[in-house]
Amino acid sequence: MEFKSKILEIKKCEDENNCFRIIKFEKPKDFSYQSGQFLMLACDDFKLRGNPEQLKWSSFSIASAPFQKYLELCIRIFGSDGLTNHLNSKKTGDTVNFKGAFGNFLLKDFKEISFVALGTGIAPLISMIRTLLNNGEKKPINLFYGFRNRCCFLYHEELEQMQKEHPNFKLNFVPSNPESDWDVPKGFVQDLIEKTDFSVPKNEVDFYMCGIPKALDAIKEFLIEKGFNSEKIFYEKW
Ligand SMILES: Cc1cc2nc3c(=O)[nH]c(=O)nc-3n(C[C@H](O)[C@H](O)[C@H](O)COP(=O)(O)OP(=O)(O)OC[C@H]3O[C@@H](n4cnc5c(N)ncnc54)[C@H](O)[C@@H]3O)c2cc1C
């Protein structure tokens, strides 16, 4: 089903990297989805190259959770000629087109759950975390979040608040290239996972991961080597 929706808010990356946007827009009454799914987005003024009759559609994971009143996407700006860059010109009140929801990257029952987010790969995972915590989930939930620098630490205030309010939620983060005035250890999510004490045997921990394919493949390999269960590793690769 196809929808038209008004943009409610756009949050931009505030440093010179100009690397992401968080866009909130209206959720039509007859649109439903589950955490982990994605939608396809297009703008009336951005057509398919070589075919100006057709809109250029791109896929984006839904970062909001179904209980929230709006839809939210978390978008990395790629290059200068794609839809993500075109979204730069959009402002509150403008409309976007979307269709969906699509995808089978969905939560299953678990004993202990670990999320591995790389950059804007946080999008479908924060939707899942919002859903779990909002439903009163009490089983252990870990987030291993790797990103470049402070500017790319998306949702950090909300995640820190979640950790304060929910003793079963643990935020573990690591920048790969922190600003010189940010005194934190740098590294990769594998370093964080290595240091973690899980409350169930390793082969019973479920992993949900999202990010770029090459890095996710390396993390999956690492997890299997460390004794985690390959059948409990689920991912969305972009
Ligand atoms: C399931 C799924 C979920 C995803 N979720 C997210 C997410 O939450 N956040 C996120 O940041 N990314 C997400 N992505 C990646 C996203 O869909 C885009 O691939 C990515 O944002 C590329 O950005 P772009 O601006 O080049 O986009 P696009 O506009 O999709 O461009 C991609 C390619 O199309 C070409 N192109 C650009 N403009 C045109 C045009 N007018 N006509 C024809 N070709 C053109 C470009 O040159 C480029 O090669 C997801 C992908 C998938 C498959």
The assigned CATH architecture of the largest domain is 3-Layer(aba) Sandwich
Task: Write down the secondary-structure element order.
Answer: EEEEEEEHEEHEHEHEHE
Structural class: alpha/beta
Distance between the termini: 23 Å
Question: What helical percentage do the residues reach?
Answer: 10-25%
Account of the protein in words:
The chain is of the alpha/beta class. The protein folds into 2 domains: 2-102, Elongation Factor Tu (Ef-tu), domain 3; 112-237, Rossmann fold, CATH 3.40.50. It is 20% helix and 34% strand. The protein has 5 helices and 13 strands. Strands 6-3-8-1-2-7 form a 6-stranded antiparallel β-sheet. A 5-stranded parallel β-sheet has the order 11-10-9-12-13, sandwiched between helices. Helix 3 (156-165) links the parallel strand 10 (141-147) and strand 11. The structure holds flavin-adenine dinucleotide.
Considering the chains and any ligands shown, give keywords for the structure:
238 residues, alpha/beta, Elongation Factor Tu (Ef-tu), domain 3, Rossmann fold, 5-stranded parallel beta sheet, 20% helix, binds flavin-adenine dinucleotide
What's the layout of helices and strands?
Elements: E1 2-12, E2 20-26, E3 38-42, E4 47-48, E5 51-55, E6 58-61, E7 70-76, H1 83-86, E8 95-102, E9 112-118, H2 122-134, E10 141-147, H3 156-165, E11 169-175, H4 189-195, E12 205-211, H5 213-225, E13 233-237
The structure holds flavin-adenine dinucleotide.
